[in-house]
Amino acid sequence: MLKNITRPFQNVLLERKLCVGCTGHLTKAKKIGNLSENRIMVECKCKRRYVYEKELAAFKRATFAEEQQILSMIAKGQIK
Ligand SMILES: [Zn+2]
């Protein structure tokens, strides 16, 4: 029981594939592009970005490095 209380609320939402900001369904989030074959960046309607890990079948918050990677890919025209 104590474990459930101390467990970060954000993780609970992410396990349910819900945005931690607006609790929107991340399965409906806009796909931005692939970081790699098994990692897809998506953007929620509230502009928060997440990475879907195909191998884990789970979403996590995009890191700063991942945000930079996708921005650089967009700048290079690799992603429309
Ligand atoms: Zn959201």
What features would you describe in this structure?
The structure is a single chain. This protein is α+β, with helices and mostly antiparallel strands and 80 residues long. It has one domain (2-75). Helix content is 30%, strand content 26%. It has helices spanning 2-6, 9-15, 64-75; strands at 30-36, 39-43, 49-53, 58-61. The chain has a 4-stranded antiparallel sheet, with helices on one face. It is globular, with a radius of gyration of 14 Å. The protein starts with a helix and ends in a 5-residue tail after the last helix. The relative contact order is 0.16. The model has no long low-confidence stretch (mean pLDDT 92). The site of zinc ion has 8 residues, from loops.
